[in-house]
Amino acid sequence: MTLMKYNRPNKDVASKRFSDIMDEFFNDALSARRDNFVPSIDISETEDQFLISAELPGMKKEDITISLENGRLSISGERNIKSEENGKKYHRVETSYGSFERSFQLPDNVDEESISASYENGLLDISIQKNEQEVKKQIEIS
């Protein structure tokens, strides 16, 4: 059995209670999230490296891809919904699922060969060493 909320056919906003309007707003927002998984990403910098942390709960490291092309670092993957098992049926799912891709343009002063990544307890950590020899060029105006 699947539980569904009954929506009254009256579409007149003035006749709706405030709580009904809020329920519709948040239920629509939550149901839209299910097919649109966007992981939270933190980017920080130390004196000698850039650090990227991505929250990817419930994912296996085999489901995550990190690539670098033309100075653009991309993180992609897919978080799949758990299938019904042992007679268990879900009546409400608020967890976001689906495929995602996040890309970031790296600055010029990084050592692309030094990029390393680790994944533990749903947290992907990427570290990128800075390359002090790579500096922006000054262009003289003629």
UniProtKB/TrEMBL annotation:
Transmembrane segments: none annotated. Keywords: Stress response. Residues 32-142 form the SHSP domain. It comes from the Bacteria. The keyword tRNA processing does not apply. The keyword Glycoprotein does not apply. Residues 36-140 form the CS domain. Belongs to the small heat shock protein (HSP20) family. This is Heat shock protein Hsp20. The lineage of its organism: Bacteria, Pseudomonadati, Balneolota, Balneolia, Balneolales.
